[in-house]
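Q: Can someone sanity-check these two? First one:
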Amino acid sequence: AAVIERRRGEIAGIAAQRAEQRRRTMAEAAGQHPIQPAWVAACVNAAKAKDAIIVNELGVPMELLDLQLPRSYISTSPAAGLGFGLGGALGARLGAPDKQVILIVGDGSLMFGNPVAAHHVARAEGLPTLTIVMNNGRWHAVHRSTLGMYPAGSAAAAGSMPLVELGPAPDYAAVCRACGGHGETVTEPGDLPAALLRALAAVDRGEAALLDVIVASAGP
């Protein structure tokens, strides 16, 4: 019993340290421009229902999300699975029709998932979800991996890294609106909380919603 109690105390201490680190990370990100993933996570935590289902595909770090209940988080390995998020969110809503479903997804992964078809199905089958696009204008995983492997290579020195940049980007919010949903583009950190509330209100009305959140400065 003494050993178990000691371990419980150690684990509680680690959990408290992690919670404090998460709080500091989110607080530091609040006023930063462009919008930071930690601020997106903080705003989602504040706006979502306690039992909301989060589908996360290269969106925000999982450890920043407030996940208190089982069966409230869906993700997958990006290896050979890019683009699952949109369909995964529709499936989650189909399986749990009374819960909020929030997809947080990178812009590249969003395009892999065929957003026109996904938003059309959401409307046709009555499966409203909220999609938050983390729009950094590039295949970020490829960009990061290339810099990690060849920090002084030709790709790193290029003004625009080959096969990485996604600009000029489509108007993702307009794509959702064209399919009968609610779409907004968010560029300022202070505008995100209210935009989230409007988007979730649209979902409550039975409309798919999408927030195109600009998380990187313009240019390469």
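And here is the second, same format, sequence then tokens:
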Amino acid sequence: VFYFMPGLRYFSSLSNIFFGDTNFGYILLATFLPYAIFKLFKIYTNTKVAFILLISFIFFPIFENMGFRHFNYIWQIARNHAETLSITLIVIGLTFIVNIEKNKKIDIIKILFSIILFSFAVLARPNFFPTTTIFTLYVILILYLNKNYNYIFLVSFFYCISFLCLVHNIYFGNSFVLFADANLHFAFTERFHKLILDDGINIIMRQLTIWNPLYNIHRLIILIIILYSIINYKHNFFTYALLLSVISQHLVLLTTHPGGRYAYLAWFLTFILFVKVEHSNKTLQQIFIKTKKLLI
């Protein structure tokens, strides 16, 4: 039965066929992450904003604690962790589906490719399963609204790749384990309590403190701005899917490992959503105007 991240070992095996006993294949894949980020921001902002954010991501880590720094992802490759692999696949996948609501003609090849990337992202990092599932359901919703019912079956079938872990665990381990036998890392299990030697209330406080330390109070402000925009303005389906993915991934953090590399995706998606709502509705400007009126 799998314990460590199953997808990374298969990716490493494939990479070693071409690059020998090195991580060059992993590094090569990570070079696509900045381009995917640029393309994603370019689609729903503009080229200028996307370029500024790209430069910030690579050279100026202003938003590092939002999971927005390239060096951090390269460093995780050096440590042979799966976060970079999974997040890179997710971001590349998003570039293919972010604009499908506006397209009258559905490009099923691009959609299926994104679903395959989401599936392998789950294999690489199973705790990203909520996010990839939400984006897959978003694709299915758009296909349903466009009456592409045959494509819905194809999308569902290709997303089932993410359940190969279950097949492996049943066949080799005679155990019905969905992804990996890692329940030690769930904060509210008996095994975790025994490891931490603390009660439920203190563990909750511990999780919250690690999830967002006081010096990162600006991250909570960003979350509040996002919620303000979502409540007060109308958005497209992709924005709501992005919001659900942010909420689900933060819930995963609060119930497992709430900080470090485990938190990259949750805060990275939060930053993407913040840029999206700010660019669409000028939320900060609207808040400033309303606050000024109240003070006057």
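A (reply): Looked at the second one. The two ends are 64 Å apart (CA to CA). The longest helix spans residues 237-255.
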